[in-house]
Design a protein that fits this description.
Helices cover 53% and strands 0% of the residues. The protein contains 4 helices and no strands. It starts with a helix and ends in a 7-residue tail after the last helix.
């Protein structure tokens, strides 16, 4: 917060006991609010990020392996293709 508001006139600093009063005095009512994914919580996003990281690590470790049986190799390719295919944007 100090980095963001350091040049704001009167900013008392985040450690100041008066910081809450400063923020309350200067807050404005929002005319609108944008939520990109209203059906997804922060917890969901963090879980999806962990899942993405784990899948990327798994795919990296499995890429180029020649010892996979044909069904496993086919399933891996199908999964990789499904995950890497971008979806259109709905507006």
């Amino acid at each position: 917060m100090d980095l963001l508001f350091q040049n704001v006139e009167g900013w008392p600093g985040i450690d100041s006991p008066s910081v809450k009063d400063f923020i309350a005095e200067h807050q404005m009512t929002a005319a609108g609010w944008f939520v990109a994914n209203p059906q997804v919580t922060v917890v969901d996003v963090r879980r999806m990020q962990r899942t993405e990281h784990a899948l990327n690590d798994f795919f990296d470790s499995m890429s180029g392996r020649e010892d996979l049986d044909p069904k496993t190799a086919e399933a891996m390719k199908k999964l990789t293709d499904a995950i890497s295919t971008p979806e259109g944007v709905d507006y």
